[in-house]
């Protein structure tokens, strides 16, 4: 009986293993099989081999020089050089060692590398190893340089002094240096994007501040209670908008900011401004870029009340759509010529109106990818409907709680 | 039973679901009052929604049927279904919410920072969702068959169509309200008839099911045996038979069967006089114990093992159900998620008192259902059987409506989860268009399988989905939340080996490939071996690959375990105050 059980279990295991392998194959990146067809001359093959080995070392190095990346790059680099052992070090410590002899040579590396780290030149020196069975008799140290001078050194060990090894090690070190420079370039590009996002976020317009204060001032004598309430709303709203930390907020917090904004706008426009809300409670916890809805509402209010005697209705809706939350802001105001809108979204903004829209659009694209830009439906005299879709989950997007 | 009432009730439930789904948002939330509009769903509303989505056909019909046939041992089902939330509450609820994940795949990606583990988790979400959808559609088929006599695939098709259309059209926008409504509907639909039934039972002189003796028929009863069964008799039995008994064909002949085992062919109609003991259905090699004894039923005779399998699967499987996990996202923070779970425990616990009552009443008033193989119908036929007349019809309609609410709510929640994951991770590109395409796929597969596969009691079929969930997502969630050395290869291996083996065993059982005896028991109740297998694989492979621990593990775990106010950066002004 138990034999059957074991047979069934092992059969199930085998099936699972096969399924896993097939799954792995299916999900693995394609490519890397073409070399079997035309093998080329020996020289060509050697070149291909060298290029392939170099390409294996490149991805880890592109993340900068750390213990983790050095460890992953050391093996391909050693097979590139064809030496007994290879060591990567930064200014202070050994980052990675590939090959034999780590135990008794580890301590000597800082002394070997010191000269190179100081002068930035390759040098060849005997290791002075006491173990007669050890092949690591000579070491070539070559500098790894970045934009800010020498970052570390590559140490290649060989059994004898060899000019070829010096040359090869120097070339490889130079190639590694190029990769490290590229890594620095990547980092500065990321920093630039981050700075750009920071610059893009949260620009409440100075006009809004003047207008709000003027509106509040008009209530100070006639209705001091209301003026006081409005001032508190104003304080809350500005505190929220000027906060420095975190790039994301919960939809509930954003709606609170919009509420304060609309209270202040309502003080100015009175009954002309009507607001309708349809908020699904499921989407209130969704994280979204900080202050990315308020500009849309501001825009709707501005368009809705432009050149009009009668009032306008602004509708804000947030609904649940599976793995996404869909937020729409709609007004029944003057609308906009689609051509002009396109120009605004491209960044050419004649007249300065709609800068909020293009800003929000850009931020959404940067955070969630190009398919998550704003969708705007409008026409002259036909109002405007702006739709934004926010994924409920995106790696790295976590709301900061503010209230 | 009067069909008109029942059809009206089912129609009303379907319409109410669709209408609340489409309009509930507008009715309740169209306002210019920000305070009302932007209030998050409180723990009570959200808990009712989770319970509404969770109480499926298995809870509404299945448990009563199993209690009727196999006795109080089957109460482990409601206990397990409820206790699953206790485990969820203690180990998972708050950290899962704090991770910011919407689906279980999101959690895998957030915790392990790996797209591949995410894709693997998605496959399991789809698998579990389909396994769980199967019994919902099957239950719908059964209900409609009893109510109207339609073929058993019609009900499943109806539910699949309604769910597919509403979900694909975006009609489940206010899903929290729909599901909360469904919970109270289901509770009312069981509670109100229960009062009448208990009153009638009391008026009847409060007969007790003599649980240890064979059930006795109270009136002349005609039974149609759907599938071939083996019955056992302790005393000679005289009955009228139309069909095949012991390979002999009869046409409305009075037959006296000797004590011992007999084979009754599928489609045979047995007319039993009042006062007869209902013949016990006997599985191969079962040890006939009294009905009220624990571990009595005839499940391959390895009842103790099966019970442990059931306990492990339901206790640990609840946390990995795709439609349960996504509801926690509605809670504004981890603390609220925990409170929600606590309320869910109360709501579900209250609900599960009722199916057991129906099971016991069914044992007294409709014992012949045990013979027909459609014991899942016990809840539906009881009002007609006990009360009869217009009142029986109305209460029966009430129960039928409640049962349809159960199919609709669970099926729509599952379909949304499965379709969402299909559209996002399995089908090529992400877009709303694809969500619409994925929805029919999400319901078509279980519908097709349901027509093809062998019939299993509804509650058992749900148990299979729980087993797979317990062996795949329980290790992933528990280790992911509580163990900092979990690695992506470890998680993938554990999912594949634990969840994969459970899935394979369950599939083989449903396809009828499992050999009889111990192998069948092992494969039908895989949780006992597959849950430890999943945990062990995950731990061992993770320990073997320490270098692949995700770089952000410390930060992720801090976010999972610390209350939000500690992990979120504090505004300078507020810190100063």
TrEMBL record, chain A:
Keywords: Kinase, Transferase, Two-component regulatory system
EC primary class: transferase
Highest taxon in the source lineage: Bacteria
Gene3D superfamilies (UniProt xref): Histidine kinase-like ATPase, C-terminal domain (3.30.565.10)
GO MF annotations in UniProt: kinase activity
Ranges of residues in domain Histidine kinase: 293-394
InterPro entries found in the cross-reference section: Bact_2-comp_sensor_kinase, HATPase_C_sf, HATPase_dom, His_kinase_dom, Sig_transdc_His_kin-like_C, Sig_transdc_His_kin_internal
Catalysed reaction equations from the record: ATP + protein L-histidine = ADP + protein N-phospho-L-histidine
EC numbers on record: 2.7.13.3
PANTHER family: SENSOR HISTIDINE KINASE YPDA
Name of the protein: histidine kinase
Organism: Streptomyces hydrogenans
UniProtKB/TrEMBL annotation, chain B:
UniProt keyword Cell membrane present: yes
Alphabetical UniProt keywords: Cell membrane, Ion transport, Membrane, Sodium, Symport, Transmembrane, Transmembrane helix, Transport
Membrane topology classification: Multi-pass membrane protein
Membrane-spanning segments: 6-25, 45-69, 75-96, 117-133, 153-171, 183-202, 305-329, 341-361, 394-423, 435-456, 462-483, 490-511, 523-544
InterPro entries membership: Na/Glc_symporter_sf, Na/solute_symporter, Na/solute_symporter_CS, Sodium:Solute_Symporter
Chief localization: membrane
Superkingdom: Bacteria
Record-stated family: Belongs to the sodium:solute symporter (SSF) (TC 2.A.21) family.
Protein name (Swiss-Prot/TrEMBL): Cation acetate symporter
Organism: Streptomyces hydrogenans
Upper classification of the organism: Bacteria, Bacillati, Actinomycetota, Actinomycetes, Kitasatosporales
């Amino acid at each position: 009986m138990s034999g059957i059980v074991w047979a069934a279990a092992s059969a199930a295991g085998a099936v699972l293993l096969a399924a896993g392998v097939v799954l792995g194959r299916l999900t693995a990146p394609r490519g890397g099989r073409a070399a079997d067809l035309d093998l080329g001359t020996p020289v060509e093959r050697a070149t291909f081999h060298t290029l392939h080995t170099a390409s294996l070392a490149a991805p880890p190095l592109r993340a900068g020089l750390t213990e983790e990346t050095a460890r992953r790059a050391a093996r391909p680099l050693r097979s590139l050089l064809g030496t007994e052992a290879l060591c990567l070090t930064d200014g202070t410590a050994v980052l990675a060692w590939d090959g034999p002899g780590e135990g008794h040579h580890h301590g000597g590396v800082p002394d070997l590398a010191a000269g190179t780290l100081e002068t930035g030149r390759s040098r060849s020196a005997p290791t002075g190893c006491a173990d007669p069975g050890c092949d690591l008799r000579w070491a070539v140290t070559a500098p790894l340089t970045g934009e800010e001078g020498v970052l570390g050194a590559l140490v290649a060990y060989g059994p004898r002094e060899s000019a070829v090894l010096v040359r090869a090690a120097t070339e490889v070190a130079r190639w590694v240096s190029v990769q490290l420079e590229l890594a620095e370039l990547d980092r500065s590009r990321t920093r630039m994007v981050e700075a750009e996002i920071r610059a893009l976020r949260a620009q409440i317009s100075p006009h809004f501040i003047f207008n709000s204060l003027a509106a509040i001032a008009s209530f100070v004598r006639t209705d001091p209670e209301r003026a006081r309430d409005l001032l508190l709303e104003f304080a809350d709203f500005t505190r929220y908008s000027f906060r420095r930390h975190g790039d994301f907020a919960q939809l509930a917090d954003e709606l609170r900011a919009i509420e304060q904004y609309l209270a202040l706008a309502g003080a100015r426009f009175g009954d002309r401004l009507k607001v309708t809300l349809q908020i699904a409670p499921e989407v209130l916890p969704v994280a979204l870029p900080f202050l990315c809805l308020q500009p849309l509402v501001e825009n709707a209010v501005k368009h809705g009340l432009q050149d009009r005697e009668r009032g306008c209705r602004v509708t804000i809706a947030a609904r649940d759509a599976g793995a996404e939350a869909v937020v729409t802001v709609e007004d029944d105001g003057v609308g906009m010529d689609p051509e002009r809108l396109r120009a605004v979204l491209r960044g050419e903004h004649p007249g300065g109106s709609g800068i909020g829209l293009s800003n929000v659009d850009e931020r959404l694209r940067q955070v969630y990818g190009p398919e998550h830009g704003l969708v705007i439906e409008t026409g002259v005299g036909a109002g405007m409907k702006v739709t934004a879709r926010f994924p409920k989950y995106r790696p790295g997007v976590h709301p900061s709680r503010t209230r | 039973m009067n069909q008109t009432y029942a059809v009206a009730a089912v129609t009303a439930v379907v319409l109410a679901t669709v209408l609340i789904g489409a309009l509930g948002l507008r009715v309740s939330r169209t306002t210019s009052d920000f305070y009302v509009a932007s209030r998050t769903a409180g723990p009570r509303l959200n808990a009712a929604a989770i319970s509404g989505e969770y109480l499926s056909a298995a809870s509404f019909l299945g448990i009563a049927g199993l209690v009727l046939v196999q006795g109080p041992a089957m109460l482990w089902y409601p206990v397990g279904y409820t206790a699953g939330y206790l485990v969820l509450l203690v180990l998972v609820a708050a950290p899962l919410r704090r991770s910011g994940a919407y689906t279980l795949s999101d959690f895998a990606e957030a915790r392990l920072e790996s797209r591949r583990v995410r894709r693997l988790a998605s496959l399991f979400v789809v698998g579990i969702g389909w396994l769980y959808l199967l019994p919902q559609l099957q239950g719908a088929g059964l209900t409609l068959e009893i109510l109207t006599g339609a073929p058993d695939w019609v009900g499943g098709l109806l539910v699949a169509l309604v769910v597919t259309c509403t979900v694909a059209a975006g009609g489940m926008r206010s899903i929290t309200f729909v599901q909360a409504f469904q919970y109270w509907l289901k509770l009312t639909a069981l509670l109100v008839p229960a009062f009448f039934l208990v009153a009638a039972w009391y008026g009847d002189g409060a007969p007790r099911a003599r649980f240890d003796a064979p059930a006795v028929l109270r009136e002349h009863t005609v039974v149609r045996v759907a599938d071939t069964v083996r019955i056992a008799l302790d005393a000679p039995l005289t009955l009228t038979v139309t069909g095949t008994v012991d390979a002999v064909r009869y046409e409305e002949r009075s037959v006296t069967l000797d004590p011992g085992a007999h084979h009754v062919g599928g489609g045979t109609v047995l007319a039993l006089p009042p006062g007869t003991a209902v013949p016990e259905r006997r599985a191969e090699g079962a040890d006939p114990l009294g009905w009220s004894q624990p571990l009595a039923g005839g499940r391959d005779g390895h009842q103790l093992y099966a019970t442990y399998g059931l306990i492990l699967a339901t206790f640990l499987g609840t946390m990995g159900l795709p439609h349960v996990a996504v509801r926690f996202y509605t809670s504004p923070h981890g603390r609220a998620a925990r409170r929600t779970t606590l309320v869910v425990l109360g709501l579900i616990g209250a609900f599960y008192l009722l199916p057991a009552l129906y099971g016991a009443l069914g044992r007294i008033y409709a014992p012949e259902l045990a013979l027909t193989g459609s014991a899942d119908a016990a809840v539906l036929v009881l009002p007609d059987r006990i009360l009869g007349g217009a009142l029986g019809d109305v209460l029966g309609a009430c129960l039928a409506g409640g049962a349809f609410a159960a199919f609709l709510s669970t099926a729509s929640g599952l379909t949304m989860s499965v379709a969402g994951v299909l559209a996002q991770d399995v089908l090529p590109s992400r877009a709303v268009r694809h969500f619409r395409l994925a929805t029919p796929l999400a319901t078509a597969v279980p519908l097709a399988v349901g027509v093809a596969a062998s019939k299993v009691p509804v509650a058992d079929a749900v148990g299979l989905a729980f087993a797979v969930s317990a062996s795949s997502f329980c290790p992933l969630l528990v280790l992911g939340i509580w163990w900092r050395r979990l690695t992506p290869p470890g998680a993938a291996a554990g999912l594949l080996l634990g969840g994969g083996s459970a899935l394979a065993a369950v599939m083989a059982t449903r396809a009828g490939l499992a050999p009889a005896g111990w192998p069948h028991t092992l494969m039908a109740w895989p949780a006992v071996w597959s849950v430890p297998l999943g945990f062990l694989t995950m731990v061992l492979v993770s320990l073997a690959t320490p270098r692949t621990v995700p770089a952000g593990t410390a930060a992720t775990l801090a976010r999972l375990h610390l209350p939000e106010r500690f992990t979120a950066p504090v505004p300078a002004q507020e810190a100063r105050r």
